[in-house]
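[Q] Does anyone have a clean structure-token version of this?
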Amino acid sequence: MDILCSKSDGILTLEFNRLERKNAITGAMYQTLADALVAAETDTDVRAIVLCGKREIFTAGNDLEDFMKTARPKDFSVDVDRPVFQFMRALYGCSKPVVAAVSGPAIGIGTTMLMHCDLVYAADNASFSMPFTQLGLCPEFASSLLLTQLAGYPRAAEKLMLGEAFPAQEALEMGLVSKVLPLYELIPFAQAQAAKLVALPAASIRATKRLMKQSRMEPIKAAIADENALFGAMLGAPEAKEAFTAFFEKRKPDFKQFA
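[A] Here you go.
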């Protein structure tokens, strides 16, 4: 299974389990994650959710081969029933607390999804990147809004415009993660934090989360709609075609030919 789902003592754990492909996420994996989160909403046995990857890598982001087979520029911006949209909608709309534990690289949507989690912890080997501009694309799923709110405009601009990776300590300074731990401590710590949430009154936890997030919900939805429209248009543009071709040909893209 490319996504491992387990439930114990009130905690639903969702783990990326495709190490041979650097935990790159396919449409089928997004669907599994979405279905699990939707089911958790009405499952009284689930009081907290932990999202994690492997020690070596959280996720390399979208599986580009799978992505190019299923993402059609002519309808990408309006097909909100795609598995990735189902997953992200379930994540940012989840009423129960979500704890993310990140070790190794978290690339693209691997970083984006963290902004929609509640407690985010990183191992000291973690790194983060949102290389959308390097692919001729733009930010996704309200990352242009949320990263700016977290880190301030100058730092968010650096991360989103250049798309370069940054380490766990910098993510901590930016407010993207709450704590950096030694690798061997990460998962036990995240599970212990989730267990604390499980032990508290579920209604109080859900109400607190709702109150903190409700003022951001409409701006998030608006940002996602704007980003999606641009992302879809840019996906069919020459810059993205050059970026994806270069990726599959294992060469550096040449964007100087485009105005």
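[Q] Thanks! Anything notable?
[A] The beta strands are 3-8, 11-16, 48-52, 98-102, 105-107, 119-123, 127-129, 166-167, 179-181.
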